[in-house]
Amino acid sequence: MAITGVKSLNYRIAEPERIASARTFFTEFGLGAPQDDAAPAFTLPDGARVRLQPPAAAAFDTAVTTETVWGVSDEDALARLVDALSRDLTLVQDARGDWHFTTPDGLPMGLGLFDRRPVLNRPDPLNAPGHVQRLNQWRKWRFRAQPRTINHVVYGVDDYKASWDFFRHRLGFRLSDHSRGLGVFLRADGACEHHNLFLANAHYHRPSAPSFQHACFGVEDVDEIMAGANHLTRLGHVSKLGLGRHRIASALFYYVDCPAGGEAEYGADTDYLDDGWVPREWDPKFGYIVWCANLPPFMQQEAGRDVRLLANEDDVDVPDLAAWRQRGAA
Ligand SMILES: [Fe+2]
Fold first, then answer.
1. How many helices (H) and strands (E) does the chain have?
2. N vs C: which end of the chain shows fewer Cβ within 10 Å?
3. What's the whole-model pTM score?
4. How many domains does the chain have?
5. 137 CA → ligand 1 middle, Å
């Protein structure tokens, strides 16, 4: 076991007023009060951090302005990963001991020792006609969300096959599923969330540069998502899709624009996997949602249902991404 999940999410933000609005946002989102006013840092219950860094405090200077530092379980594993990456990449260690580097496709990444703390949850049992799991028992009354973990991060990349090869061969990530033409969902080798990293085709809708797209923060259940969502709505924050459930990962989602960059997502009821999982491949629209409160225009037609199980990771059918880029430009 080596990488156990996201240790920290570091946003590089040049404008002091945007640091201030991002600080307010993450407090309203449920991450509590940050430490350090100059470079606010929020700590989640599993020990992960969200940092809002002025350029002088950030250990990266890429065009992509959000860095993910991956948590590593022990010193030997960290030393092995750092040593192997150092053969062809430049790694810089910060005062905390975390290592920082840029992937060949331009993503700012890091590695650091991470004692990921277990988090305790006990979702209310579900009732259905003829299936009574909650008798004479109140459901929990929710008022706010309090995210426990950073479940996954999403980056748009120029060539997701090339980016996947890097994360697969250099950092040990496993393939969970493939949305044909849209991207690959990857799980860190020491984690069980369906995916910790989604590498998305930056040119799927239109040509665009590599970018950070969103981070998903794990909460207990649908009630906690919607208590947090209603709180954010009352404060004027906007979600385009509203509540929905992905088919990929089975997870409930609620995205909201984040002033630090990209979107922040509340997530719950995701699939958990280990190496016994068989990856699947399907049309992106079919994998995208089971249902959604505000159906977007591109989902007005039902998606095709062709699903393929992949005998192994090399069985993946990645379309010609260069042609995809040109189609997007047309
Ligand atoms: Fe997500």
1. 6, 18
2. C
3. 0.96
4. 1
5. 32
